[in-house]
Amino acid sequence: MSAGVAREVVTQLVAAGVRDVVLSPGSRSAPLAYALAAAERAGWLRVHVRVDERSAGFFALGLARAAALSGGAQPVAVATTSGTAVANLHPAVLEASHSGIPLLVVSADRPHELRGTGANQTTAQVGIFGGAVRAALDLPAGVDPVAVRGHVTRLVAAALGTLSRDPGPVHVNVGFREPLVPPDRWVPGTPPPPVHLAPAPTGEPVAVPSGVRTLVVAGDGAGPVAARVAHAANWPLLAEPTSGSRTGAALTHYQSLLAAGLAEGVERVVVFGHPTLSRPVSALLARPGVVVVGGPRWTDVAGVAAAVVPGIAPPEPTTGDLAWLARWRTADAEAEETWRGSPIERAARAVWERDEVLVIGSSTTIRAFDRAAAPREVRAVANRGLAGIDGTVSTAAGVTAGLGEPVRVVLGDLAFLHDAGGLAMGDLEREADLQVVVLDDHGGGIFAGLEHGAQPDADVLARYFTTPQRLDPGGIARAFGAGYARVAVEDLPAALAGPIRGRSVLHVPLSQ
Q1: Which side of the chain, N or C, has fewer Cβ within a 10 Å radius?
Q2: 3-state secondary structure at position 381
Q3: What's the pLDDT score for residue 133?
């Protein structure tokens, strides 16, 4: 019966559009492993095996982000055994929840009669992710495989936000009784017919009046629509590096322009995506006249939004709009003429000018890109849902597996330490063309730029905030079978020029 349920779960995942499953092996999840192996042999899907569940969760997240980069939404499943294995997925589930990524957690569990008895590797897995998931289902051991049908479709629809317009993670917990080894060999035939669900309507774009001094703020995941609206209306565009809008006439130095008070005369701010990177932008979004373009989970931290709309129909630009735009462009050009950049900003600009797909780490790293990256077409993503520094290497590994293209990930030394295990590669898995660029400022440099940096006790700042580590990126790289090179900032453009083949680490010390 366990084998039948596992096979039906896999069949219905394929019918609902799942093409990639990440598996972290275990004993209780064995029925799923056998079913996935058979489905992969039949060409139904791809299986990616990762030994560490925390890394597996972010790898699956990267696979889903790769689909988004290609212009679509692709649900990705991650399967684990019972116990702490499930809990290790929680960071990735939270990031998926706040980023709106369709991640499906399939966890194996003990049968109901063993729960609450002290049985080995048995804990309360039902509801373990709380409100982070869009939907959850507990399939008891011994359930008729036919009963699985429909439930999986509903879960995938919830993950995609097909009807709710609120995509995110879902969780199916499957109880398995022994025997866990199937009694026969499953040979899947023709893939199951796809299940189609009509998406919910998104609503018509809303017209806004012209002649109002307007700024467009494009946060993470805004997409090219923000740039199109700004261009059509002749409004200045403030676009974060992972917005998908930092192209064309977007402003490079908008943070310094905001800090200099150039936005004092702004009358309206139109917000796309999830802006998170600077306090000047946060202050801008706390002013009256904010219009948010978004879905069920819109960004309005200050609670001052005058309207939340599904889209904007840009008005015909006026003479005032042209003068307003010219003021910002002139100031941006002047800032570029005098820009020299800190070491990390120069490193960020060198990376940004390459053509590879880019995954950007949180904290100081992505803020350096925001201050230094000139507008151009770059496929760049980051985990900005909760802006954590964990799982960055694993996410990038998932992106390259999903796209089938080389990927470069740029992150700080602490973020690298958090997810060094993302470099791990099993002997039987497909090699990844992944280059990890470690911008090493010897600790959490972001804290020195916050209010903590002004406190007088340098020892407190170092030990309790920046936490410098005895880190050997070369030793870590070699331990995982990856290439390694130490590169000075001024030599970074030349080091980036070669092709990305296999896994490698470029270590860029920012201070000697």
Answers
A1: C
A2: strand
A3: 98
